[in-house]
From TrEMBL:
Domain Glucose-1-phosphate adenylyltransferase/Bifunctional protein GlmU-like C-terminal hexapeptide, residue spans: 292-365
Cross-referenced Gene3D superfamilies: Hexapeptide repeat proteins, Spore Coat Polysaccharide Biosynthesis Protein SpsA, Chain A
Protein name per the record: Glucose-1-phosphate adenylyltransferase
Organism taxonomic ancestry: Bacteria, Bacillati, Bacillota, Clostridia, Eubacteriales
GO MF term (any one): glucose-1-phosphate adenylyltransferase activity
Gene: glgC
Length: 411
């Protein structure tokens, strides 16, 4: 028997993250490094701990190995208790058939037995690919106060971006009367954050109905929430004010890292009352050599800097050689930037080597055709030969770079 938990959190971390290109070729999106020492999943896990939620199920599917290893027994987030803690929940074989998670709702449906072990009153459903700090206990208190069946966290987005989100239309008391998933002509800019609080008994019945519907896509936004709304259930919007970023694209991931270098952006990683916990790489302090130039940058432990960095985020174990320049870029763990290389407006993944004199990316003001400009990306483990050029907006990994080299050799 497991002790009753009033709240169980279910963290959806199985997305492929195809819009992140080579960064998620062999890595689940929630495991992508962020902010110099974190991975994206650190934020919802830390929010759970700081909100007093002791039981968290992490639903994995795509490329789960590194994510599973990273979560481990949950100790870095204080989620390693004997009767609660964090649990990695991959799809598993039922009877003689193997069931992949078919959608967000189906993923929770398949884990009803896990949730039932704790006999919760409420289930919090979270996404594993957002950067934000949020006290879920306040949202749960709001849910109780409204005697809601479902509460959806919302944030105001620019009207021109509203069609990318699930959009809610509400009454003056916050009750939801309309929900449109990615509407072509949105009626408001009140967007769903993909964070839900459900009364468990009510959610379970809708999950079972949804699973029995042969034409359902088994998705919360497309199926379960509209079904609850049509049935007249009590659904409320919980307005969130603060920093929130969906880092599902290259541009948004780059922007969110750069936001950490802007004192005017309300995302404080130094906040004692709401720490973001992570797994420590256990490396020595960073070293900045005499003559090196470091400005407006985050430099993690284990880094060695001889060159020049400005508006850069360096993860643990990064080496910047003499004469190398890194500007407006993200350099992920254990990557080497060799002498004379220039990296600008780029994301360089883990375990890469950027050869001497290579040029990665470019500043927007140096591009004549602005449509050709964008963040350059170098994938995990890629070795860029000395003197090579990786153009803006390019996505390069070891395989594609080798193919390009063969093409050039044949010309």
């Amino acid at each position: 028997m497991f002790p009753k938990q009033q709240v169980v959190a279910m963290l959806l971390a199985g997305g492929q993250g195809s819009r992140l290109g080579v960064l998620t070729k062999n890595l689940a999106k929630p495991a992508v490094p962020y902010g110099g020492k974190y991975r994206i999943i650190d934020f919802p896990l830390s929010n759970c701990v700081n909100s007093g939620i002791e039981t968290v199920g992490v639903l994995t599917q795509y490329q789960p190995m590194i994510l599973n290893e990273y979560i481990g027994n949950g100790q870095p987030w204080d989620l390693d208790s004997m009767n609660a803690g964090v649990h990695v929940l991959p799809p598993f074989q039922r009877s003689r058939r193997s069931d992949w998670y078919k959608g967000t709702a189906n993923a929770i449906y398949q884990n009803i037995p896990f949730i039932e072990r704790y006999n919760p009153d409420y289930v919090v459903v979270l996404s594993g690919d957002h950067i934000y700090k949020m006290d879920y206990s306040r949202m749960i208190a709001f849910h109780k106060e409204k005697e809601a069946d479902c509460t959806i966290a919302t944030i105001e987005v620019p009207m021109e971006e509203a069609s990318r989100f699930g959009i809610l239309n509400t009454n003056p008391d916050g009750s939801v009367y309309e929900f449109d998933e990615k509407p072509k002509a949105p009626k408001s800019n009140q967007a769903s954050m993909g964070i839900y609080v459900f009364s468990w008994n009510k959610l379970r019945s809708y999950l079972e109905e949804d699973e029995a519907a042969p034409k359902s896509s088994n998705d919360f936004g497309k199926d379960v929430l509209p079904a609850m709304l049509n049935a007249g259930e009590r659904i409320f919007a919980y307005r969130f004010e603060g920093y929130w970023k969906d880092v599902g694209t290259i541009d948004s991931l780059w922007e969110s890292n750069m936001d950490l270098l802007d004192p005017n952006i309300p995302m404080d990683l130094n906040e004692e009352s709401w720490k973001i916990f992570t797994r420590n790489p256990v490396m020595p302090p960073h070293y900045v050599a005499k003559g090196a130039r470091v400005q407006n940058s985050l430099v993690a432990e284990g880094c060695t800097v001889y060159g020049e960095i400005d508006f850069a985020v360096l993860f643990s174990g990064v080496y910047i050689a003499p004469g190398a320049v890194v500007r407006d870029s993200i350099i992920m763990p254990n990557t080497r930037i060799e002498e004379g290389a220039v990296v600008q407006y780029a994301i360089v993944a883990e375990e890469c080597v950027i050869g001497g004199g290579a040029k990665i990316g470019a500043r927007p003001e140096d591009i004549v055709n602005k449509e050709e400009w964008g963040v350059a990306v170098v994938g995990n483990g890629c070795a860029i030969p000395p003197g090579s050029v990786v153009a803006p907006k390019s996505m390069i990994d070891s395989e594609s770079f080798a193919q390009e080299a063969v093409k050039n050799a044949r010309k």
